[in-house]
Design brief:
The protein is α/β, with parallel strands linked by helices. Helix content is 32%, strand content 14%. Bound molecules: phosphoric acid mono(formamide)ester.
Length: 322
Amino acid sequence: MNHLLSIEDLDREAIERIIAQAARFAEVSDREIKKVPTLRGRMVLNLFYEASTRTRSSFELAAKRLSADVVNFAASGSSVEKGESLKDTVLTLSAHKPDAIVLRTPWAGAAALVSQWCGAAIVNAGDGKHEHPTQALLDVYTLKDRLGSIEGASVWIVGDVAHSRVARSNIIAFQRMGARVTVAGPPTLIPRGIETLGCEVRFTLDELDSADVVYALRMQRERMGDTQVPSLREYSALYQINARRLSPRQLLMHPGPVNRGVELSGEVIDSPQAVITAQVEAGVVVRMAVLYELLAGRRGPSSAPGQREPSTVAADEPRQLA
Ligand code: CP
């Protein structure tokens, strides 16, 4: 594996290999000294153009626990604010010879573009509404840890599917691991044609009781217009996961951050059925396993900044990319 751009890059065997490696790293996280020398002398660059709490902190911790050097770059406060493009930023920071670049941007396809601009291994940490493959991997890890096997489990992904990169990656990953996936939400927040990914679609929660796992999504108000949901109160009345809708035998997941009182009621967030904190914990060991998979045994980046042929940027890509 040279990059992790999409969960589609991983077949079931590759997902199982990463999950098994993550389980081995979980043992390291339980030690008093939570560090192994596996990636000593390697460098991981966290390049974040969007806000993040969980992904950024867990990639930093993952790299440090593997003894890699870490550089954290946030677009806010950088020369991006003076107009520097994504491409020039990547080429500039590539002068420091990162072995891996962990990239989050609001632009679908940005991670794939960056993989053509430098010699580092690229990890997609969220590209717009497109994909969030390491979230899918940590969710598979969490479910496997709780259920033993995901094979045959019924997983309902509920809420703002239209704006969710997590939904897309998780539909693919859960199905690859043998689960049956249903997406549910208001028609305005379910993308047309989503069933081509193999999932079922529901516009009500009437059959939610059939789920083994309820995976609620954040209402991404920053990405939606007024026409998609008339009011959050109306959304909550019909789709909020609360004690009335969640049965005691069901597991509750959410990628975070949660809009408490909107897609989830406070009582279910704090209930024993919620594995939201376990998901965050899994993030570190799963990201250790991803960095290990990409970098252990791989030679350092060979191409200097700008050495590679620049890729063609699609005409409709945001100008700031190139
Ligand atoms: N789930 C997730 O990606 O959270 P952050 O935005 O806090 O990284």
